[in-house]
Amino acid sequence: MDAPPTTGHPQRWKILGVLVVSLLVVVLDNTILNVAMKTIADPKQGLGASQSQLEWAINSYTLVFAGLLFTFGVLGDRIGRKRMLVTGLVVFAIASLASAYAQDPGQLIAARALMGLGGAAIMPATLSIISNVFDPRERAKAIGVWAGAVGLAVAIGPVVGGALLEHFWWGSVFLINVPIIVVGVVAVLLLVPESRDPKPGKIDFAGVLLSIAGLTLFVYGIITGGDSGDWAQPQVWGTILAGVAILTGFVLYERRIDHPALDVKLFRDPRFSAAVAAVGLAFFAAMGVMFFGAFYLQMVRGYSPLETGLLFLPFAGAQLIFAPQSAGFVKRFGAKAVCAVGMALVAVALSAFVFIIDENTPIWVLCTVFFIQGAGMANVIPPTTEAVMASLPREKAGVGSAVNNTIRQVGGALGVAVLGSLLSQVYRDQMASHLVAFPENIRHVASESIAATYAVAAKIGPAGNALIPSANQSFVHAMHWVAAGAALVALLGAVAVLRWLPGRPVVQAKVEEPQLVDVS
């Protein structure tokens, strides 16, 4: 018996290609930045940014992105997802220009926050459009391709960034976004249909402000504590507690109103709650590792930015290979088994950083570890994303996409903040005994990060040469602690999946969804 005809848009696969291009610019930017951090930290070639400023260059983007995803997801459902996508791309291009020509770390952080504004409009629009132009039978496959595009961006981002840094100034890593956006805007205008929720909800402005304030204070406190090493100062614990209090108030407030930015009732569905928990924990672990991985390769191992980008290819290549296949794995084995194995692979790769990666590890071993981690991520993101999207009716696709991507970005932001702070703390403690013979001002600067130690060593002449081996050893020791923490988080994600994610394939569970009613 022939299968019933699809009810998706007749040009849905071309539309998916356009959405992939739009998605590339968001993911590409963060992967390029990982390779460029060493250069931006250099006072001569870059902006002389400290490690905490580098963390904020990442997290200013992420916090604005995460804080506005709720609103822009709902706003896209209201005014039109195509319109929101084009607006986001234009804002992202303007912010990329501002980032490229920033004159100091503060300007870069501000421009990156503006990029987060544009990214918050782009990301939920791409996923919600996919949910509206594909019917449930093809949606899982389309989301697998969408997730594979993330792997593509991870693959080409560091390589492109490394090549640009070897031939141009550091700002070129942001300027590269502009031509991609021009192509993306033209393609969106020509091919993507407009769609919206016929019964849009109100916008929860108070909830949005509470979420942004709570996340910003919480992450600021963590980064400040890691940067200063003094967790007892009121500026640290006070802002952390204030952030937790505001976020608690945000959840309580969202439970009481009829138009919440985050409908906390969604988390009563075990498929939804387990899926977003797995996404958040996976990105918490992954982003923390990507943060220290770039410094390990460029500082400890001495690779150039381009070589560093090439060494990240196994991580990205595994995602390109396995993400599009994940829908078939879920159909055969179930989402629970696929996601649990994926999280376990991530934990295995992170554990390898603890036990077998040091200053002299053969590079093929590191590439193998990256490949295993990428394969694990590829079998977590697509099925969990499909589980989230399948939990909601298609007219609410923007809300589902916003929640999914918010949890992912918050997980990534906290990963960089928490694991980056742990890296700073352990590195500072390890370097203390090697810096006792130097004046206080040199000790303070040199202990901040491995990049700062290298910079100080270059300035003080022969006496600084002895600091380099100590810096490398201290960084690797700190890296082991960070990787161990990330591995525990990945294992926690595997437990959450095994405990709460339903075992049956999510695609089969939603075949009876209402048919597409509005794509024009």
Q: Which overall shape is indicated by the principal axes computed on the Cα atoms?
A: globular
Roughly how many Å is the radius of gyration? 22 Å
User: How would you classify the helix and strand content by structural class?
Assistant: mainly alpha
Largest sheet geometry: none
> H/E element string?
HHHHHHHHHHHHHHHHHHHHHH
Mean pLDDT across every amino acid position = 77
Roughly what percent helix? Answer: over 70%
Strand content: under 5%
The total of beta strands comes to 0
Query: Which blocks of ≥5 consecutive residues have pLDDT under 50?
Result: 505-520
In whole angstroms, the N-to-C terminal distance is 32 Å
Count up the helices. Answer: 22
Structure write-up:
The protein has 520 residues and is mainly alpha-helical. Helix content is 78%, strand content 0%. The chain has 22 helices and no strands. The protein is globular and about 70 Å long. The relative contact order is 0.14.
Features:
520 residues; mainly alpha; 22 helices; globular; disordered C terminus
Summarize the entry for a quick read.
With 520 residues, the protein is mainly α.
Question: Could you give the topology of this structure?
Answer:
Layout: H1 12-41, H2 51-79, H3 81-100, H4 105-133, H5 136-167, H6 172-175, H7 177-191, H8 205-228, H9 234-256, H10 270-300, H11 305-311, H12 313-322, H13 326-333, H14 335-355, H15 363-378, H16 381-390, H17 397-432, H18 440-446, H19 450-459, H20 462-465, H21 467-500, H22 506-509
Helix pairs in contact: 1-4, 1-5, 1-7, 1-10, 2-3, 2-4, 2-8, 2-17, 3-4, 3-7, 4-17, 5-11, 5-12, 5-16, 8-9, 8-17, 10-14, 10-16, 10-17, 10-21, 12-15, 13-14, 14-15, 14-21, 17-21, 19-21
